Amino acid sequence: MPNNEYQAKPLPFNKELIGISKKTIEIHHDKLYAGYVAKLNEINKKLEAARDNEELKAAANQSYSDLRALRIGETFSVNGVYLHEAYFNVIGGDGMPNGALKEAIEAKWGTMEKFISIFSATGMSVRGWVVLAYDANVNEMKIYGADSHNQGGVWGCIPIIVLDVYEHAYFIDYGSDRKKYIVDFWKNLDWSAAGAIYEKIMKMNS
Fold first, then answer.
1. Distance CA 185, CA 25 (A)
2. So where are the chain's domains?
3. Measured between alpha carbons, how far is 68 from 72 in angstroms, rounded to an integer?
4. Which DSSP category does 19 fall into?
5. 118-157 pLDDT, tens digit each
6. Choosing a second label site near 126 at 20 to 30 A (CA), which of 55, 63, 76, 153?
7. What kind of architecture, by CATH, is found in domain 99-205?
8. The model's pTM
9. Does 2 have pLDDT greater than 60?
């Protein structure tokens, strides 16, 4: 992959957010997210080289080995990249639910308020991420929580709405008040961006 490095995506919005400062976004996107992209490319180069490294392959071991460390680092970094991109994709809106996604959420959870309530409570109960995903295994939307980038994810799922609840996402602006940060997350949500993902999934399934 040395000639095909993953490229960091630019921030998809330029508006001032409610509660979340420009400083937080700059650190979060330009340094932390960009750092995951850099590490992913570094790991990919080492995995590329591992194809012809007979010594490394012969030493592979589940307790500890260089290949094991690379594979663990790979999933941590790639999920760190993808989850951050999904999070940035859905903040920068006006917080007004609309379209087919709104209708689908209300059909499954009864009301938008009930959906936001359980999603937000999940954000208070996990250490890293909350994801509204389309689970292709059961053909429906599900809310999943994760303590880490490479823990809590479910195979066969496409993220639609992603909330980062690591402290780096809010501590500068909210201190330890994660609950207020989550309240403001909904005020900043770009429902059109999330809806575009949902509609794409529906077209793929039709």
1. 13
2. 22-89, 99-205
3. 6
4. S
5. 999 999 999 999 999 999 999 999 999 999 999 999 999 9
6. 63
7. 3-Layer(bab) Sandwich (3.55)
8. 0.96
9. no
